[in-house]
Design brief:
Family (chain A): Belongs to the binding-protein-dependent transport system permease family.
Helix content of chain A: over 70%
Pfam families (chain A): BPD_transp_1
Radius of gyration of chain A: 24 Å
Largest sheet of chain B: 2 strands, antiparallel
CATH architecture of chain B: Orthogonal Bundle
Main location (chain A): membrane
Distance between the termini of chain B: 36 Å
Low-confidence stretches of chain B: 1-12
Number of strands of chain B: 2
Strand content of chain A: under 5%
Subcellular location (chain A): Cell membrane
Number of domains of chain B: 1
Distance between the termini of chain A: 39 Å
Structural class of chain A: mainly alpha
Low-confidence stretches of chain A: none
CATH class of chain B: Mainly Alpha
CATH architecture of the largest domain in chain A: Orthogonal Bundle
Strand content of chain B: under 5%
Mean pLDDT of chain A: 87
Largest sheet of chain A: none
Mean pLDDT of chain B: 88
Largest interface: A-B, 100 and 96 residues
CATH superfamily of chain B: MetI-like
Shape of chain A: globular
Oligomer: heterodimer
Keywords (chain A): Cell membrane, Membrane, Transmembrane, Transmembrane helix, Transport
Order of helices and strands of chain A: HHHHHHHHHHHHH
Number of domains of chain A: 2
CATH topology of the largest domain in chain A: MetI-like fold
Helix content of chain B: over 70%
Chain lengths: ~280, ~300
């Protein structure tokens, strides 16, 4: 055991205490939102934001849920993020197979192109996309948002996966080729199964990143039937008809799915978080 | 021994792989390349979004460089880089090192990872939802912060306070990301480095400066780059919290371009702002990658 040369016994607890205080500060907004989502407006104005709710008052949550048809928003978010995650992984695999394994000519330029595409601000694409979507009748449709994010996430996935597949053991591929396996079969029979852990991480990241998107979905999904969770909450923020506890309820409804994904995917995420760091 | 006709194992040559790129190239062209070029082209025109755009050459750009709101929006962007990249990176370094090199050793790895999870939690929220949370907490009449402290401060509505408030919120939101990345990076560091330093009697701060920071320099670059880009692109929190106001106290380029696109129907001008922003982001990315490359060369 190392000695506490520089922080004595009290100092050692002081360091811990300082970090715990900071952690509490970080978590306080979550606690306050949760606490007040279950209060009636009357309770809030008499007891303030820190009092414990007397009983479970669900009206705020239920009213808000029904008013914005929150179940539908959840479904929209789930559908868009799910489709994008699967399609973007598929695109990434196809591209990375050609770039990483096939080493097609000009691959370096293509990789730079994909990287730049991923760093471009969506503001520099939004108006033409909006205009073109209107022309082809895809404005205010989930399909438009799915297509756009499949490409944006796929660009990142391609960049990442190409370097992973560039390291793919050559021997296995050559053995399969000698056995007469076609490229298509090598991709699905060997490359995809072997890289499954990386693909899972990508799938989860794409799902969560798409779920969290705000700008483009806000521009494209204007009708209530198509909005995603962040768009619905963001657009309703500060509406006059919302009282204190209903605002709190709306914030809680935004927090819950995000924290749920974090808990469900925690293992994969901590394993892959450095993967995401490149984004 | 390789058979003399080893090349025959690849009978179809390399060209066949292009087929796999085809779906992407088509989508990429339609969704990134063409819209981006259209945006650049539009920036040389006056256009309301309907009818034919009028070519006006560089007028939007000359107007842009004389527009006080545009310069102000970039100043706010710099403030947000401080709040989203600089402060979280510095604080994240100290916190990650404290958790890794102090708490984990003296109070156990579980304490360290519980604290790490607490710091990280805001990061899991969609940034718009983080805005909703704080918009409620800071509401001038019923918000929890004013209620708890008995204040009547208009955190987001006071032009002198709004930017500082948004900055504080973004520090809260962003802090966990560097902590997690840096702690993951520290796993890679050879523990004997720390042990040797401790035996030599090196203080915690000396270990921090001479071991922690040099060892995780790649992670520091990545975090600074990604957070700076995120700060340059920031839109959601501004939209939800302040809509660039009050006045233009929290105006940022992304929101400024949105405003011109969809509310002022000044599409040409909005395109010029978006083009400049895109250019800045691409340049920043390349600069970072250059510096990182040099840094790695110097090391090897």
């Amino acid at each position: 055991m190392t000695s506490d040369r520089h922080f004595g016994q009290p100092g050692r607890w002081a360091v811990l205490a300082a970090l715990v205080v900071l952690a509490v500060v970080m978590l306080v907004p979550f606690a306050i939102v949760t606490l007040n989502a279950f209060k009636s407006p009357a309770e809030y104005s008499s007891g303030g934001p820190l009092s414990l709710p007397q009983g479970l008052y669900l009206d705020g949550i239920v009213t808000f849920w029904q008013r914005v048809d929150f179940g539908l928003k959840l479904w929209n978010s789930l559908l868009i993020s799910g489709v994008v995650a699967v399609a973007a992984v598929l695109l990434s695999v196809l591209n990375a197979y050609a770039l990483g394994v096939g080493r097609v000519r000009g691959r370096l330029w293509l990789l730079v192109l994909f990287l730049v595409a991923n760093t471009l601000p969506q503001e520099a694409l939004v108006y033409p996309l909006y205009y073109l979507a209107k022309q082809v009748g895809l404005y205010d449709s989930k399909l438009a948002v799915m297509l756009i994010f499949t490409v944006i996430q796929g660009a990142f996935g391609t960049y990442l996966l190409s370097s992973v597949l560039g390291q793919f053991p050559r021997g296995i591929l050559e053995a399969a080729e000698i056995d007469g396996a076609s490229r298509w079969r090598i991709l699905w029979g060997i490359v995809v199964p072997v890289s499954r852990p990386t693909l899972t991480v990508l799938l989860i990241f794409f799902f969560i990143w798409t779920w969290n998107e705000f700008f483009l979905p806000m521009v494209f999904l204007i009708s209530n039937d198509n909005q995603t969770v962040p768009v619905a909450l963001g657009v309703l923020q500060g509406e006059k008809m919302m009282d204190a506890t209903m605002s709190s309820a709306s914030a809680l409804l935004g927090i819950v799915p995000a924290v749920a994904f974090f808990l469900i995917f925690q293992r994969t995420l901590t394993r892959g978080i450095t993967v995401g760091a490149i984004k | 021994m390789a058979p003399p006709d080893a090349g025959a194992a690849r009978p179809r040559g390399r060209g066949g792989y292009w087929l796999y790129l085809l779906p992407s190239l088509v989508l990429f062209l339609a969704i990134i390349v063409v819209p981006f070029l259209m945006n650049v082209a539009t920036s040389f025109t006056r256009w309301s979004g309907v009818g034919t755009p009028t070519w006006i050459g560089l007028d939007n750009y000359t107007k842009l460089f004389r527009d006080e709101r545009f310069w102000a929006s970039f100043q706010h962007n710099v403030a947000l880089i401080v709040a989203m990249a600089v402060v979280p990176t510095i604080a994240g370094l100290v916190l990650a090192a404290a958790l890794f090199d102090y708490i984990a050793k003296r109070f156990g790895a579980r304490t360290a990872s519980a604290l790490r999870a607490a710091f990280y939690l805001p990061q899991v929220l969609p940034v718009a939802v983080a805005g909703v949370v704080w918009g409620w907490m800071l509401h001038p009449s019923y918000g929890a912060v004013n209620q708890i402290f008995g204040l009547k401060v208009n955190w987001l509505g006071d032009p002198d306070l709004a930017l500082a408030t948004v900055m504080a919120i973004m520090v809260w939101f962003q802090l966990g990301y560097p902590v997690v990345i840096f702690m993951a990076g520290l796993q890679r560091v050879d523990p004997s480095l720390y042990e040797a330093a401790e035996i030599d009697g090196a203080s915690w701060w000396r270990r921090f400066w001479h071991i922690t920071i040099p060892q995780i320099r790649p992670e520091i670059f990545v975090v600074l780059l990604t957070c700076t880009i995120a700060a340059l692109k920031v839109f959601g929190p501004i939209f939800v919290l302040t809509r660039g106001g009050p006045g233009s106290a929290t105006m940022v380029p992304s929101y400024f371009s949105y405003l011109n696109f969809f509310q002022k129907v000044n599409v040409g001008y909005g395109s010029a702002i978006a083009t400049v922003l895109a250019l800045i982001i691409v340049v920043v990315t390349f600069l970072f990658l250059r510096v990182q490359d040099r840094d790695q060369e110097r090391d090897s």
